[in-house]
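dude i think i finally got it to work??
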Amino acid sequence: MAALSAFDVQVLTGLPRPRRGGAGDLARPPDVVVEATDDPGLLAAAAALRHAVFVTEQGLFAGSDRDDVDDDPRTRVLVARRPDGTLLGAVRVAPARRDGPDLGWWAGSRLVVAPAARGTGGVGAALVRAACACAEAWGALRFDATVQVRNAPLFRRLGWLAVRETSLHGAPHVTMRWPLDRVQRLATATKSALGGVLAPLLDVPGALGGPGFLGDDGVGVPGSDVVAACDAVLPSLVERDPEWAGWCAVLVNLNDLTAMGAEPVGLLDALGARDASFASRVVRGLRDASAAWGVPVLGGHTQFGVPAALSVTALGRTRDPVPAGGGRPGHALTVTADLGGGWRPGYTGAQWDSTTGRTSAELRALGSVVARSRPAAAKDVSMAGLVGTVGMLAEASGCRAVLDVDRVPAPAAAGTGDWLTCFPGFAVVSADAPGRPCAPAGPAVSAACGELGEGAGVGLRWPDGDVTEALAGAVTGWGRA
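look at this
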């Protein structure tokens, strides 16, 4: 694993740059390397330092401070050392639960600093910063540490929040939590500006879906049973992987129709490309997806000699669209997701491909699940990830959502942090009265995994009952539909 300097760590965690001079535990340690290591020599030295401090010096343990965290193969050890290899301190980072899959709940423990390094300034802080940065890089959505009371001020100065006082090994401790904001950053980057940017369009009657459908995935065409949806593919994706871009352009639009409970009728495309050869690769992807779903491309526009660009409009039909804003306090949240497939090559952690291996019959079963279930509200998971999509449904419904992390359907090959923030291929969030069944969704799995209530934002509920804040409030700024 690559080494992290103290300065690298503070950049990754978003902390203020450490002072270059002065003593104090936030100053940048001179000539200190902080790294995750599997070097046997460093690991043995770290274990010996832990024993010297926690067993001999502090008397917290009798005989040994080793526990089942040390035996977990997922545990990582971070060390602080001089360039010559002299060990200054260590900390371990591991999933908080010993049994079952990693839920994105991690914990730091056994933070130790060598006696000779305690007065040099910043070794402990550098290790804590490194633990924060690495935990997030390894997929954590929650990161805790139970620290001795005398160390709590250091954690507070580094931005940690005190959760509760407790006793551990017969000594007073404080459970602290690092405020991870991975979900909030994603939602802010992809959706937060929508309300303000598009607000001028509301001056025209019937714009943006009309009353009850503001912020929905598709829009009913006035005076008809036609539902239209339109999505553009990122130009960088079109340039990098044109066939996949063509497939995705169909996929995301048909998912939008699915969330409205509409049956697809046809597609329109607008394609820009530098030349005919490049355009042909995009069209191959469009054609393959069109054939797989059995939805024809009716027409569109193509232009050469321009930067790569692709957008698709999908047309469907339903006389009773399902809104995203139909949820109410007390409604149960259900996630229906296709867990087949795997990470798209080159997009690990960001794009899950569950559709290219499905038959047409399976794709049609997925696409009709909302129409057959008729929930009170539904929204397909898109660029804001699963939690961000839950936040948009809750916002449109004028509610707060709480999501049970361990009940969300997830593939074994995807870490929870990635799964809750990626584009999952096919996944729909719906809200309805508790106990109301969801129609079979072909190869997809459905599970009730949360509820709507009073308030705003999205909380993540963990197996120990704690709720962490994933989204503090509105996602798009539209407010209630």
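Residues 1-26 have pLDDT under 50 and may be disordered.
im so relieved honestly
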